[in-house]
Specification:
Radius of gyration: 21 Å
Helix content: 25-40%
Number of helices: 13
Strand order of the largest sheet: 6-5-4-7-8-11-10
CATH architecture of the domain at 292-410: 3-Layer(aba) Sandwich
Number of strands: 17
Shape: globular
Length: 411
């Protein structure tokens, strides 16, 4: 078989249909130390559809160890995300009767943003986090955290030490997994009898309908519909019994699963409702993506035209949020420091570095207040309300906010 033929990471079928090609881009979370720009590597960023199982995916050019072993994303820097986690923990404890004798296992537990809430309520917790620098923050909060990539072998190791999870949580991690079969088989292995798995993934339907192409980057290997998630689960003895449509990350699915045939968790009508919407949108067929690439191109052209116009008229534009999705957008649109002077971010782990590809400097938030730009381009548009509330001072000097997805909006 030719080396340039790509196979589906779930079912092994040949990937023949291109959803969108975003050219060659750097890793979106690999922030650049000034002076090392020449060392940056670029990789093709092209999303393809598997017409056999419905999984949309990008090729894995880089091993997860190169991406996630020392990671710059800390969940607790988003107030809305911490609040989302608190709400989830409260609901899960009540729904599944979790208490002191229970174990909640979170995969990709980051800095303890979620497990801290279960811990405070007296529920047993265990995190698995591959980034040692991030895991240290969770451990400092008293959260038992194993530094490892999760898969079947890690699950076996955990079971060997007596772990049986009543609830396995994976929020926005399934997309980051190149070997889906190994990962989901690990979940099934570590699940206690009658246990539940809860997975959150950005919804492919929202990505397509709202042109959220900036959520495509190398660290996101897969893009899920519920239909594709069902296929992943079914291959490893699991089934979906409930699904919630939630607003995080521009529209996500919270998928609840259990072992196939678990009578304690009958399938709820929500599953059929989402499946029907996805089938109507033809998300497992090439026809469901018709016109998507053209809309992406219009978005990129629109952003570049807006920034070019502001530079020409002497109106300053500064970006807020050194988010991975923003890097996909800026690089796809060909934006560099000629059009965007700097970006500010609350995360000190990103400050003092350069955005990958565009090499726009990352500064602390006070820098924006000192400069008082005419426009503040919000790159993590999914946090638009949180950011505009935090940065209400921008309006005091007559500044305006801007988002670029799916088109330029000034507000």
């Amino acid at each position: 078989m030719s080396a340039d033929i790509l196979l589906c990471r779930l079912c092994g079928s040949i990937l023949e249909h291109v959803v969108v090609d975003l050219g060659e881009q750097p890793l979106s979370n690999s922030y650049v130390v000034p002076g090392s720009e020449h060392e940056e590597n670029l990789y093709p960023l092209c999303a393809r559809l598997c017409t056999s199982c419905g999984l949309v995916q990008v090729a894995d050019f880089v091993a997860p160890e190169a991406i996630f072993s020392d990671y710059a994303y800390f969940s607790s820097y988003s107030d809305s995300w911490v609040a989302h986690a608190r709400s989830y923990a409260t609901a899960a404890e009540a729904r599944f009767g979790l208490g002191a004798d229970s174990t909640v296992l979170e995969i990709a537990s980051n800095d303890g943003y979620l497990l801290q809430h279960f811990l405070a309520d007296g529920v047993g917790v265990l995190g698995v986090e591959p980034a040692a620098n991030v895991a240290e923050v969770a451990q400092a909060k008293g959260i038992d955290t194993v530094v490892a990539f999760f898969g079947l072998q890690t699950a076996r190791d955990l079971v060997g030490r007596g772990v049986a999870a009543d609830l396995v949580v994976g929020n926005n991690v399934l997309a980051h997994v190149p070997d889906l079969n190994d990962f989901v088989s690990g979940i099934e292995h570590v699940l206690a009898p009658g246990g539940v798995v809860s997975i959150e993934v950005p919804h492919l339907l929202r990505l397509v309908e709202e042109t959220q192409f900036d959520t495509i980057y190398h660290e996101h290997f897969s893009y899920f519909s519920l239909l594709a998630a069902q296929a992943v689960f079914a291959r490893h003895g699991l089934e979906v019994f409930d699904v919630e449509q939630i607003p995080t990350h521009g529209g996500s699915l919270r998928i609840f699963g259990c072992r196939i045939g678990d009578s304690a968790h009958p399938e709820l009508p929500s599953v059929a409702e989402v499946v029907a919407a996805e089938r109507a949108a033809r998300l497992t067929e090439p026809e469901g993506f018709a016109g998507f690439a053209a809309r992406v191109e219009r978005c990129c052209v629109g952003l570049r035209a807006f920034l070019t116009e502001q530079v020409a008229r002497g109106a300053s534009v500064v970006a807020y949020g050194a988010a991975a999705k923003g890097n996909t957008l800026l690089n796809a649109a060909g934006v560099s420091t000629e059009l965007l002077a700097f970006v500010v971010d609350r995360n000190p782990h990103k400050q003092g570095k350069l955005l990958p590809g565009s090499h726009v400097p990352v500064c602390d938030v006070p820098r924006l207040i000192v400069e008082q730009p005419v426009f503040v381009l919000i790159l993590p548009w999914n946090l638009r309300d949180e950011i505009t509330e935090q940065m209400a001072v921008v309006r005091d000097w007559g500044g305006s906010f801007v988002t670029a997805i799916p088109e330029i909006e000034i507000f």
